[in-house]
Design a protein that fits this description.
alpha/beta, TIM Barrel, two-stranded antiparallel ribbon
Length: 239
């Protein structure tokens, strides 16, 4: 099962095999105010599957030059750290911020690094982390910009000590946001957590054998909360 800020006031079930907890609040740059309680609940998972009993997920975004965005980088440095950026140098032109692959990478890095360092996660290396990629969060029409930001998120998570990182999405949303991922990208070959929508456990198990998002393997399939579990999504292990 997976929970986040929408379940703050909801009763959480017992004896789930494993649980995935959302680190962010309503927006990617906000905290999940119930993180401590939900992590404690997840830690009591019964186990019995190949999945780690407690996992985490964080939200992807790429607002670009949207004036409503609270932050957009103007250099390759974030909080005193200058990560290796294969897209080049993020900077300004005529004193104005620029939407470039390099700046998208640094923005993604800022999200990932903050998720690990300021959201309240102790021992980040102890968990498997997932990046939640959905259309209802900010993203660019150019998939190359979103891929750069996703690579930055992975770099930021790793800089904070995370070791295992997978991708959560649906095939259609992933295609719209990330497009085609080349083998030269650190996105390629990562474990997938696929959202199936309203469905059944039988169909979820069948979806374990469907085409992965970016050359990886499908580790889990999510069934929408509307199927038999109130406000909490159910997840089926594929391993």
């Amino acid at each position: 099962m997976d929970v986040s800020y929408p379940q703050c006031d909801a009763p959480l079930p017992a004896n789930e095999a494993f649980a995935i907890v959302g680190v962010n609040g309503e927006y990617p740059n906000e905290d999940n105010e119930c993180l401590v309680q939900e992590l404690a609940w997840a830690a009591r998972s019964a186990g019995g599957s190949a999945q780690p009993k407690t996992q985490l997920y964080v939200t992807f975004a790429n607002p670009g030059l949207d004036p409503r965005a609270k932050f957009w980088p103007t250099s390759n440095t974030y909080k005193g750290i200058t990560p290796s950026n294969r897209f080049g140098k993020c900077g300004t032109k005529g004193g104005k911020k620029q939407l470039t692959l390099a700046c998208s990478f640094v923005y993604g890095y800022s999200l990932g690094y903050d998720d690990v360092t300021i959201r309240g996660i102790e021992r980040p290396a102890a968990y498997r982390w997932w990046i939640d990629v959905e259309l209802n969060f900010s993203h660019q029409s150019a998939t190359s910009q979103n891929r750069a930001a996703l690579e930055g998120m992975i770099a930021g998570l790793k800089a904070g000590g995370v070791r295992t990182i997978g991708i959560y999405s649906t095939p259609s949303q992933w295609k719209t946001i990330a497009g085609s991922v080349g083998k030269d990208s650190i996105l390629y070959g990562r474990s997938n957590w696929i959202a199936l929508g309203r469905s059944t456990i039988t169909k979820a198990r069948q979806a374990c054998s469907s085409t992965p998002l970016s050359g990886g393997k499908i580790a889990m399939v999510q069934i929408e909360a509307a199927y038999g579990s109130g406000t909490i999504d159910r997840d089926v292990s594929c391993t």
